[in-house]
Amino acid sequence: MADQVSATEAAAVEALGVAVARLATDGATTGVEETSTAAGEVPAHRSHDPANNAKRTDPFMFGQRFLTQEDNVFEYNAWDHVETDDAFKEYAEKQYELQRSAPVSEFDKSRFNSDPARWWNMFYKNNTANFFKDRKWLHQEFPILTQICEPDAGPKTILEIGAGAGNTAFPILARNKNPLLRIHACDFSKTAVEVMRADAAYDTKHMQADVWDAAGTGDDSMPPGLGPASVDVAILVFIFSALSPSQWRQAVENVARLVKPGGTVCFRDYGRGDLAQVRFRKGRYLEENFYIRGDGTRVYFFEKDELIKIWTGETAEPETPVEGDRDQKVASTEDTQPFMTADEAPFALEDMGVDRRLIVNRAMKLKMYRCWLQGRFRRK
């Protein structure tokens, strides 16, 4: 019965995604005018040749395919740095209202929040290592990972938090040339850790996979084999969003205890307004921007200034509003939960960017907007 429900929900979500994409295109501008870049402002390196809109022969670089007035939006599967159009924003706000009107029941809130590891165990039992693709983009997005994998980098320790089936750890291990590198891959799903340990690429000389809850307390606040100030780089990719807001401060404190002064946290997660958030139906809303997926796992969608506040205690500089963007907010301490002040927060911001991408179904002439947040924090 559970499998039948999941299949039904998946079909409904897919149908809703098509409806969202169609609404974003029907009777609306393509978004080219709103996101066009003047010819003099377009970087020299582009992933396509504006003269004939054909792919370049040099290696493709993420984040370099800019949509301009001269481009055919349906020529490629994806475009970078594209703001959502007004039709999508309007539809998204209506979706949020529907979600808030029919939240998760108190019984289900307790059921899903009391033992989140259970649902992730079920997820990895059903999907093993086949659900996520290996993250081969890591070295491009976080150059420090290349630096510490060089032959002469010396003793270095990477901690991946929320390692899942190893889709981050194994690609790093495959490119590593540093004989003194250690990768600690931790997940609070016992099943995920078993999947990593059973992988042919699992090499105990350089890698150790363990069960650990990033928001653990007391004796469980540190993963096996690691002590205070023992980590050079911590990686959190689509893991912070799985935590309840009530767990954020503990998780940040745990990471801070592990990372060396001057060490780096590499971060990527879901941004507010991502299509995955808009797609949620009634009965999935836990609290503002926090949802339960059909498989029982939780996901939160962050504002940029909210993340900066959580990790650094700093209030982000207000961004220049995009004309017609109803979701644009001016950052203020009232918009974020005041966990720490800037003086007591253990991390400083190195950078934080909003990765907005337009995914295109060229055959059906559909547009789908994605939004992720990516940045780096430095341990004070």
Automatic annotation (TrEMBL):
UniProt superkingdom: Eukaryota
Top-level EC class as recorded in UniProt: transferase
Keyword Methyltransferase: yes
EC number(s) stated in the UniProt entry for this protein: 2.1.1.-
SUPFAM superfamilies membership: S-adenosyl-L-methionine-dependent methyltransferases
CDD domains reported in the protein's UniProt record: AdoMet_MTases
Residue segments, region Disordered: 29-56, 315-337
Membership in a protein family: Belongs to the methyltransferase superfamily. METL family.
The protein's name: tRNA N(3)-methylcytidine methyltransferase
Organism field: Sporothrix epigloea
